[in-house]
Amino acid sequence: MENLIGLLVAAPLLGAAVLLCGGRRLDRSGPWVGTLLAAVSFALAVALFADMLGRSGEERTLTTTVFSWVPVGGFRADVGFQLDQLSMTFVLLITGVGTLIHLYSVGYMEHDERRRRFFGYLNLFLAAMLLLVVAGNYLLLYVGWEGVGLASYLLIGFWQHKPSAATAAKKAFLVNRVGDMGLSIAIMLMFTTFGTFAFGPVLEGAGQAGEGKLTAVGLMLLLAACGKSAQVPLQSWLGDAMEGPTPVSALIHAATMVTAGVYLITRSGALFDAAPTAQTAVVTVGAVTLLFGAIVGCAKDDIKKALAGSTMSQIGYMILAAGLGPVGYVFAIMHLVTHGFFKAGLFLGAGSVMHGMNDEVDMRRYGGLRKYMPVTFVTFGLGYLAIIGFPGLSGFFSKDKIIEAAFAKGGTEGWILGGAALLGAGITAFYMTRVMLMTFFGERRWQPDADGNAPHPHESPKTMTVPMVILAFGSVFAGGLFAVNDTFLKWLEPVTGHAHGNPPVSALTVTAATMVVLVLGVALAWARYGRKPVPVTAPRGSWLTRAARRDLLQDDFNHIVLVRGGEHLTRSLVYVDHTLVDGVVNGTAASVGGLSGRMRRLQNGYARSYAVSMFGGAAVLIAATLLMRAV
Amino acid sequence: MNPVNYLYLAALLFTIGATGVLLRRNAIVVFMCVELMLNACNLAFVTFSRLHGNLDGQIIAFFTMVVAAAEVVIGLAIIVTIFRSRHSASVDDANLLKL
Amino acid sequence: MNTAATATSTGEAVQFWILGIVAVAGALATVLMKKSVHSALSLAGTMIVLAVFYLANGAYFLGIVQIVVYTGAIMMLFLFVVMLVGVTAADSLKETLKGQRWLAGLCALGFGILLIAGIGNASLKEFTGLGQANSGGNVEGLAALVFTKYVFAFEITGALLITAAVGAMVLTHRERTERAVTQRELAERRVRSGKQVPPLPAPGVYARHNAVDVPGLLPDGTPSELTVNPTLRARGQIRDVSGTALRELAALEQRAQEWREHGRSEDAKGAGK
């Protein structure tokens, strides 16, 4: 079975190679080739899953070394895979949702001339993401990590003819580089501390290493996670990344890639457990981001950007849970999987809406679409109920557990974290209801665009609706399936470990409180957007709304602190370079030149002048001789 | 009188010859001044021969004369050649060393 | 035989002081004379004086060689070349290099003072004299040394002389690389250029001036430089006689007139007698 792990990665990689190198003759069949190879990968994942279920809890981890990658002296880096329950969860999510989104893209990208390339990039992403989660050591994980970064860059900028898309791609790439730097530094620190990159020795040896070093490693890993998962302070790229095609937003910037940070922290759990300072940093980042994303999500009129804010916020929940230690790891991953389902479904729904509305993204120009797109409405609605945590649906189980675990942290910290998570749940209910109401309910507000083409809202083709329906099923039932008998907990426990947290108030109270804020959020949204008609042009809004529309001034902050600061630094360095460095260099050159100019006069070409110097030299020699004799 | 006076005379003649080399521009006169310097040396050699009472100094002076003869032949040939091509015997005009 | 003496004879001292002054004067004249011919002659004089000094110093062979080879051969070679090259602008004593005269003077002064100080410092109060060395004859003594101790240097000097002779020939000999231009071609070229078709006019060789450096006079009495050899023209050695010639001609006519009138009156007187 071990060999199948390699094939798992190889199938989409092959697809990427074939599609990107295959040329025009694959233009027609390309989308289906890509989808087929994604499906092959999913089939392999299912086979591996079945095989894994056949073994008992302790023996489920598969490790294999394919070849020795960098054997240099005492240094050794292998291409090796490790497939345990954690990886398996991700593999199933990635290949499953990935295949569905490939299928969806067949319909969505039908009219795009460069769709072969698009599917090539999607396959490349799948391969890199799978490599990331099945890698057996941090170095190989880093390869996958960079690979998804590349695929993300390529896909965000897929419509490169739009300057905004090209800029967004560059922005995503640059911000991700900051995080990647953190990961590479973390890997280097690991190597100096443990002498190896492999998961096993590093995580087992975590207890023996000094706490200072582990804290450094943990903070660097957190930086990496912040970059990839769009957490504060490296979150600014995610909103702009919505410039990419919607399936990309669904697959990469909602369901899979952005969760890589959660995977990284969960995978390195043993390191964080031994470094409480780093863990505190993780929960802080998670709590701040979950509120940050939620607030941004409330203010955005662009449906995809509102969902992007929501993604940020939900990943904040996961990071928060992962930062709580063994109490939260399982719930982080559980929320990750359910989120993968419902957020992918929501994005696909948004894409379906855009598809029917001439690519309009402004929710103020939607309204009343439920009549025109029934399937989209139902699937989107189920996803909506799942994300706000409607009892019985996926989000309810996973999010509730995280809030509980946050309270279980204990002390003031527990209250703050729990309160933040609870508040976040309320805001989530508010902004998701807002999206729902503005899109599917109320008056129709769409108008002809500049060219006079009025949108004709219509239901999307089967290739698009089928994945949405499947994902909607996942949104509804996944949480329940996982929560019943603690199935998911038992499944993942051998890898991540689990400690049961004791919240200061009973679990039932937490659930009740969650329900209360949920209802409050929905009611508030209804009062503002359901009862009153939605204005087509956005009102000025409060200062908080205006700030949230500008991503809570994140870009302004970056511009002032980083760009301006960098410019000033550069300018002063240029000044120093021009005056000091160049001054020294030019001064030396000028003085040598001036000296040479004066020396040149001696070389006048007249033999008699030279003879004078010879004669003078002879006189000096005689003088020297006489002096030596005299002494 | 002590024969050392011949040495003073030789030094004086040598210095005069050297000054002439530095001051005159006509290559032929310069060359004559060089000959004067050689002769001053010869006088010194001959005087030393007498002072030390052996003939080695005279031998050296003899060789100097032979070499001077050869040098004059070649030197004058060069001057004639230069004059032919440049129509000048001035040492300052042959300043090709100058860039 | 005494091996060391401190003074020479008075006769030699007198000879030294007289001829020494002549030698220095000759050397200075060599440097300072404007015309190279004069320089060469001054140098020849100095060399003859040196020959006498060689003889006085017991170097009989060298003294003769000095006269025969140096003064007789080398200096005459110099004179030949001076004649060949002629007088050029280089003969001007005006210094063209800035500061050259000062520097040269300074160096010469320092050099001379140091050299003389060096000689004065050396302990040369006593001298051996060549009585013993020359006992078998000066030429024989030199020959013995040249063919024994210095035979190798002597041979090499021979090779040097051969090389010098060949070198001088190579340097001065000009190979004709093209056919010589014939008289006919020269004449044709002259006609074609049309500048000076007939032969150049002859210099002003008159009854009183038969020198080639006097330009011929044109009909209006002005001198024509064309008539003088270009070499003389280049040297600026044209003797301009236009003014004097005209004046003299006028005076001659005047005198002839006077003589005619006077003679006529005398004749008239005589006739009247």
Automatic annotation (TrEMBL), chain A:
Keyword Nucleotidyltransferase: no
Highest taxon listed in the record's lineage: Bacteria
Compartments where found: Endomembrane system; Membrane
Keywords: Membrane, Transmembrane, Transmembrane helix
NADH:quinone oxidoreductase/Mrp antiporter transmembrane domain residues: 135-417
Chain ranges passing through the membrane: 31-50, 87-106, 118-136, 181-202, 214-234, 246-266, 278-299, 372-394, 414-437, 466-485, 505-527, 609-628
Keyword Ion transport among UniProt keywords: no
Gene Ontology BP terms: ATP synthesis coupled electron transport; electron transport coupled proton transport
GO molecular function, one term: NADH dehydrogenase activity
Membrane topology: Multi-pass membrane protein
GO cellular component terms attached to this protein's record: endomembrane system; membrane
Limits of the NADH-Ubiquinone oxidoreductase (complex I) chain 5 N-terminal domain: 69-119
Protein name, as recorded: NADH-quinone oxidoreductase subunit L
Organism encoding this protein: Streptomyces albireticuli
UniProtKB/TrEMBL annotation, chain B:
Molecular function as annotated in GO: NADH dehydrogenase (quinone) (non-electrogenic) activity; quinone binding
Pfam families from the UniProt entry: Oxidored_q2 (PF00420)
Keyword Chloroplast among UniProt keywords: no
Membrane-spanning segments: 6-23, 28-48, 60-83
Entry GO CC: NADH dehydrogenase complex; plasma membrane
Annotated catalysed reactions: a quinone + NADH + 5 H(+)(in) = a quinol + NAD(+) + 4 H(+)(out)
Function: NDH-1 shuttles electrons from NADH, via FMN and iron-sulfur (Fe-S) centers, to quinones in the respiratory chain. The immediate electron acceptor for the enzyme in this species is believed to be a menaquinone. Couples the redox reaction to proton translocation (for every two electrons transferred, four hydrogen ions are translocated across the cytoplasmic membrane), and thus conserves the redox energy in a proton gradient.
Family: Belongs to the complex I subunit 4L family.
Name under which the protein is recorded: NADH-quinone oxidoreductase subunit K
Organism: Streptomyces albireticuli
Gene: nuoK
Automatic annotation (TrEMBL), chain C:
Cited InterPro entries: NADH_UbQ/plastoQ_OxRdtase_su6 (IPR001457), Nuo/plastoQ_OxRdtase_6_NuoJ (IPR042106)
Gene Ontology molecular-function annotations: NADH dehydrogenase (ubiquinone) activity; quinone binding
Ranges that cross the membrane: 14-33, 40-61, 67-90, 102-120, 150-171
Compartments it resides in: Cell membrane
Keywords: Cell membrane, Membrane, NAD, Quinone, Transmembrane, Transmembrane helix, Ubiquinone
Bilayer topology: Multi-pass membrane protein
Record carries keyword Transmembrane: yes
Catalytic activity: a quinone + NADH + 5 H(+)(in) = a quinol + NAD(+) + 4 H(+)(out)
A single Gene Ontology CC term: plasma membrane
EC category name: translocase
One family name in Pfam for this protein: Oxidored_q3
Enzyme Commission no: 7.1.1.-
Main subcellular localisation: membrane
Family: Belongs to the complex I subunit 6 family.
Record function comment: NDH-1 shuttles electrons from NADH, via FMN and iron-sulfur (Fe-S) centers, to quinones in the respiratory chain. Couples the redox reaction to proton translocation (for every two electrons transferred, four hydrogen ions are translocated across the cytoplasmic membrane), and thus conserves the redox energy in a proton gradient.
NCBIfam families: PRK06638.1-5 (NF005165)
Name used for this protein in its record: NADH-quinone oxidoreductase subunit J
